[in-house]
Design a protein that fits this description.
The protein contains eleven helices and 19 strands. Strands 1, 2, 3, 4, 5, 6, 11, 12, 13, 14 and 15 form an eleven-stranded mixed β-sheet that branches. A four-stranded antiparallel β-sheet has the order 16-17-18-19, covered by helices on one side. Strand 16 and strand 17 form a beta hairpin. The relative contact order is 0.18.
């Protein structure tokens, strides 16, 4: 008891001292990078020297999770600290013309850090909607937007590279828009006379494997319909370098005071169109080449921190929005030698571990113990509570409802109790399926859906009911032991219901 009290006092005193320093905070969120996609997590057919450096100089987590196995709900939970399924209804993958999916006034990670005196910035993929119901005005001021959720400066895309509109947005305006060529976007009906993939397959440089009728933009079929904005449209192969340049520019302009930068890369989401200098550089086809490109983006930003002498006073966190996936709509993946999720079962879009267990690396020289590994259960939605503790900002009672303070795990401080006791994974929407963790136990509330559950690839039999796994001995989720442990199944099913009905998990 005395030892536990001493450990608690040490953690509190250390956290208070850290909060007084207010380090810069850089969160790099990759897209569709799986647990096995980095060298420091066991990849052999791709090279990730900059991310491996981050792991050598920081702390690598082995039980970190995205709050969902698709991008939109993960990003909403990361920024709000509340499971996405507790919030307003929304698609697991929002269309490019969705309205803003986080209500203005919601406590968010950037709004909390603004209270601590931080300059806040967003660079990269947003994918949480823009504007009011009915979608934004692409040809005027776009509001509400991330600027209304705590960000001071933004340079972002609306959704994903395979969804229109294919333009960059700086603060509230589309970059490079010509008033004489206004933008129109629709996800309901074809508009205008732009070529489509179904009608003009000869114009496609990337073949869409699902045969959808899509707008062709820069030789790539995109979901949804778009006309106008010809001068504003991006070039896919330049995107990674533009994100890096904009991130570095924000850091240079903000270095005189504490800053928070949320760098949400497009890599390695489809369509995968690497810059020519990365083509053919990996042993895993185009998918491996864009992993190299992602690593280069990280390297450029780390080099800027070094050049500006900000490395020692910057907490860098790298992770991904969900697990890896191969065929996500385009023929742009290579030989199967590279397993995106390593030994894990499942892919993006599954509640099996491959859908949501992620690489997670933290570095802050002199504070985060270098070259270490942590097996604590953590989730991306823990970042708001953790950054609030780091900077001395109190969490509001009505915000960050499921966010836990994992600062002791980041800093390697002693703690004899789990910082996060349970975790609920889901695909998207509000109905499930769900997967719940409690210690070594993992229960899925229904069987995996489609090929992404890994059953076909692994030769496993799919079942429709709840499945129970002991992850301490079966990380690959090969043996369902629900029938042998009915009491555990009953307890975990009741726990899912209790946590959903309680409206929060944070005390």
């Amino acid at each position: 008891m005395i030892a536990r009290l001493l450990a608690l006092l040490l953690a509190v005193s250390t956290s208070a001292a850290v909060a007084a320093e207010k380090p810069n905070i850089l969160v790099i969120l990759a897209d569709d990078i799986g647990y096995g996609d980095l060298g420091c997590y066991g990849a052999t057919t791709v090279k990730t020297p900059h991310l491996d450096r981050l792991a050598r100089e920081g702390r690598r987590f082995t039980d970190a999770h995205s709050p969902a196995s698709t991008c939109t709900p993960t990003r909403r939970a990361l920024l709000t600290g509340t499971y996405s399924w507790r919030q307003q209804a929304g698609s697991s993958i929002a269309p490019g013309d969705a309205p803003l999916l986080i209500p203005v006034g919601t406590p968010t990670l950037p709004s909390l850090l603004k209270q601590a005196g931080y300059t806040t910035g967003l660079v990269g993929k947003w994918h949480l909607g823009l504007g009011p119901e009915g979608g934004p005005d692409w040809n005027g001021d776009i509001k509400p937007s991330p600027l209304d959720l705590g960000f001071d400066h933004t340079f972002h895309m609306a959704a994903t590279g395979d969804r229109v509109p294919c333009v960059y947005i700086q603060d509230r305006r589309v970059v490079g828009l010509d008033p004489a060529d206004p933008i129109t976007v629709s996800y309901k009906a074809k508009i205008g006379t732009d070529p489509t993939g179904a009608e003009n397959p000869e114009l496609l440089t990337l073949k869409h494997t699902h045969g959808h009728d899509m707008t062709i933009v820069n030789g790539v079929g995109r979901i949804g319909w778009m006309t106008g904005g010809q001068a504003a449209r991006w070039k896919d192969e330049d995107m990674a370098d533009i994100w890096a340049a904009k991130a570095i520019g924000f850091i240079e302009r903000s270095r005189e005071r504490p800053f928070f930068l949320y760098l949400a890369t497009h890599g390695i989401h489809v369509p995968r169109v690497p810059h020519p200098r990365f083509r053919g550089t990996s042993q895993s086809g185009t998918r491996g080449d864009v992993i190299h490109e992602l690593d280069d983006t990280v390297g450029q930003v780390l080099a800027a921190l070094d050049r500006l002498k900000l490395t020692d006073n910057t907490l860098v966190i790298f992770s991904s929005d969900n697990g890896g996936v191969l065929d996500d709509g385009y023929e742009d993946f290579g030989p199967p030698g590279q397993k995106p999720n390593g030994v894990l079962r499942g892919f993006k879009g599954s509640v099996f571990e491959g859908g949501h267990r992620l690489p997670f690396i933290a570095r802050w020289p002199g504070h985060v113990p270098a070259g270490t590994e942590c097996s604590d259960l953590i989730a991306l939605l823990d970042l708001p509570a953790t950054c609030a503790a780091l900077t001395g900002v109190p969490l509001p009672q009505d915000g960050a409802l499921d966010s836990m303070n994992i600062l002791p795990a980041l800093l390697g401080q002693p703690h004899d109790q789990p910082l996060r006791h349970t975790f609920i994974a889901h695909v998207g929407g509000t109905a499930g399926p769900f997967g719940i963790r409690e210690g070594k136990w993992k229960l899925t509330t229904s069987g995996g859906k489609g090929p992404r559950d890994g059953a076909a690839a692994d030769g496993q039999k799919k079942t429709a009911g709840p499945q129970l796994y002991d992850l301490s001995t079966d990380l690959s989720e090969t043996t369902d032991i629900a029938a042998a442990n009915p009491e555990v199944v009953a307890r975990l099913r009741a726990l899912v219901t209790t946590q959903r009905e309680a409206g929060r998990t944070r005390p």
